[in-house]
Amino acid sequence: MRKSVVVGMILVLAAALVSSCSKKADAGTAGKEISVFTWGFPAEKLAREEQVRRYVELNPDVKINLEVSPDYDRKLAAMLASGDGPDVFETSDDWFHLYNKELADLRPFIERDRVDLSIYYERSLSGFRLPDGKIESLPIGLCPFALAVNKDIFAQAGITIPQGPWTWDELIQAAQAVTKGSGADKVYGLTDHWVWQQILPFYFGGGYYNKDYTQLALDTPESIKGVQFFADLMYKYKIMPTYEESSGLLAEQRFFGGKSALIPINLWDIYNFAQNIGNSFDWDLAMMPTMKESGLTPVWSIVEGYGIYEGSKNKDTAWGFIKWATTDSESLTLASVAAIPPTHDAASIFTAYDFGAPLNLQVFIDTIPHAILSIPGGPFAQVNDTINEYWDTLKKGEGAADVTAGVNEITARARPILRSLGIN
């Protein structure tokens, strides 16, 4: 992992913010050793390492063996299948309770220690609570998207991107004004990004599944409108590169190189963006746009959490770490380099961060009411893989003028796969 002045500023500020509110975790954890297994981009890795470092400082009799793996899904599945899972492992609400049987119910610990769950945003906790009331994880952070803006590109065209709400009509007009050039030198107003296909079917009131995820809904009229809009961004409005135009250059690299003016960005990306952009151009954050026709602003977001392995022999020690990591203001501040704190005081903790650029971090807080869970992961992966085959053909222009037939065909193919999974 590369380190920079930005990282130093983050850690210094985090320490300053929380030095007065540190508190020792439960004495009952003394003399225990646990394993903690997580995933992480550079910012997430930094957050997890700093949380563990500080917890052990506060509890010197506790030993934590932390592993932050780039091959998380495969390794975790193998560990759980072998019956030798980590005491604590990171979870995500888009797993749709994939590891329900392997995760311990946290309610006895919560009730014993009288943890006040009202501190969390409802969106933070809802994805970890099962219909029978079981709580399989507590949230570490919210991860919604905003837009990163190359202010220099727009300034040259005399355009200022609003920091508050704006519409897709306004975005398209601004993006068309700065889309210019040809070949390798072409600058696009909007960058291609995987999150567009995740959220655009929701913009007209549609989606991928019905509310209880028992049926596919991609072929509803509302969803088809969203898919058509995705195609139109490339082939009608021409503000986003097609498959052919984008091949060979990753979305982030296009933005870093000044070849696109707008790109979706998650909080976990800011650390990486700050390092790569440096002083090469002036940039900021903006809200995801609203669809004027529907009034909707759906924003992709997952919630990351920590759960206890059901087979752990050190559940009390694991719980002591999880309780501190997910409720203590010092821990949440350290984790804010990678995710919005999942608690109602998120704004006071999070927006004070200095990432090395004067960024409008408030847009992430303003986005929370619009956060949705689009395509669930976990057991739905087989369905999603089939649907993604269609997106790949659409990016190449196949059926882009009218997506109806293509959407109907891929939904018909995916529907029996969903039924065969027997998830619900």
Q: How far apart are the termini? A: 41 Å
Average per-residue pLDDT, rounded, comes to 89
Strand elements, count:
8
Q: Largest sheet, described in full? A: 8 strands, mixed
Gross morphology is: globular
Radius of gyration: 22 Å
Helix/strand/pairing category = alpha/beta
Beta-strand proportion:
5-15%
Q: Give the domain tally.
A: 2
Q: Give the count of helical stretches.
A: 18
CATH topology of the largest domain: D-Maltodextrin-Binding Protein, domain 2
Give the fraction of residues assigned to helices.
40-55%
In the CATH classification, which architecture of the largest domain applies? 3-Layer(aba) Sandwich
Would you identify the CATH H-level superfamily of the largest domain?
Answer: Periplasmic binding protein-like II
CATH class of the largest domain: Alpha Beta
Following the backbone from N to C, one meets helices and strands in this order, namely HEHEHEHHEHHHHHHEHEEHHHHEHH
Low-confidence stretches: 1-31
